[in-house]
């Protein structure tokens, strides 16, 4: 029987570890994100690994995400675009935690017109998606990864040619939770979906003035807070899509299902087709690529 190994996606807000044995996930552990962990990142990881080590030996650990950020577990840096899978894998970093060899994957960086951009964690999903769907590694394709900072990625023959970041999710969180636009929780009419459709319908309007409808409609039309939140979401996603080039291209979406569904609706209204790729399957596949490369490189 082969020794189990551990794969992990360590983001700013959450740690997700997967124990893999015989090609299947045999255990899962969650933990605090890099941004919320009490104590050192190595101590947090050692604590989680200790729970599995008490049940049996582990071979190795492979991590992506903010584990490789400066001041986190180890600084893994960024592989510059255009970046193939091999370019990315060459830049991985190594350390030892709880007596186990740990590999931490780098992010990707690019510059468009001299403007810097970075990603950390999404690249593992991208290369994992290419492994799961080899047809995406041929020709030109667009992948979008909705989230706090949505990434729009241009692929050419399996390499990440360039990408852009849209902090749409962060703006939505700030506007819906920390501004006056949605107001206090109180009775009102309309659902989140109703508001989202209204936001999409206003996609041709200047977004800065359109946002204020979230507040005015509560005051004058008795709309609910959820309706206003939906409006903000629809407006921000519609503005994101409107600013992107190549509106005729199909889009592969990787992300949390509820958020991906919103992007699917917005893309459909703008006449674009989308396909959904399972985010967890993609990150596991990407981490397995890195583990395979590490085993191959061992003397």
Automatic annotation (TrEMBL):
UniProt key word Acyltransferase: no
GO BP: D-galactonate catabolic process
GO molecular function annotations of the record: 2-dehydro-3-deoxygalactonokinase activity
Pfam families recorded: DGOK (PF05035)
Record keywords, A-Z: Kinase, Transferase
InterPro entries: DGOK, DGOK_C, DGOK_N
Name the record gives this protein: 2-dehydro-3-deoxygalactonokinase
